[in-house]
C-alpha cells in the first residue's frame, strides 16, 4: 500500500507541468525499485486526490 501511494504521490508531482520526462520516470522507478512506464503515470490523470492516502495519515 505504501509503495502504491508513493507512486501516486511522485507521479502527481511529475505531472505538475502535465509532462513526464524520462528523468522523472527514472527517478520514480529508482526510488521505488520498479518498472513503471509513462503510460502508467498518465493513467493517473483522471484520478483526483481529495484526501491523504491512508498510508500517509
Summed up:
This protein has about 55 residues and is mostly helical. The protein has helices spanning about 1-15, 20-30, 40.
Based on helices, strands and strand pairing, what is the structural class? Answer: mainly alpha
Low-confidence stretches: none
Task: Write the element-wise H/E pattern from the N-terminal end onward.
Answer: HHH
The end-to-end distance, rounded to whole angstroms, is: 12 Å
**C-alpha geometry:** globular
How many structurally independent domains? 1
Sheet with most strands: none
- Please state roughly what percent of the residues sit in beta strands, choosing from under 5%, 5-15%, 15-25%, 25-35%, 35-45% or over 45%: under 5%
Radius of gyration: 11 Å
Number of separate helices: 3
What is the residue-averaged pLDDT?
Answer: 82
User: Total strand count, please?
Assistant: 0
- What is the quaternary state of this protein? single chain
Commentary on this structure:
- The protein is an all-alpha fold.
- It has one domain.
- The chain is 51% helix and 0% strand.
- The radius of gyration is 11 Å and the shape is globular.
- The two termini are 12 Å apart.
- 7% of the residues are buried.
Descriptors for this entry?
57 residues; mainly alpha; 3 helices; globular
Summarize the topology.
Blueprint: H1 2-14, H2 22-32, H3 38-42
Amino acid at each position: 500500500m505504501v509503495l502504491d501511494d508513493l507512486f501516486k504521490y511522485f507521479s502527481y508531482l511529475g505531472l505538475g507541468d502535465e509532462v513526464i520526462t524520462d528523468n522523472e520516470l527514472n527517478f520514480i522507478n529508482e526510488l521505488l525499485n520498479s518498472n513503471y512506464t509513462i503510460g502508467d503515470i498518465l493513467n493517473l490523470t483522471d484520478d483526483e486526490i481529495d484526501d491523504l492516502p491512508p498510508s500517509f495519515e
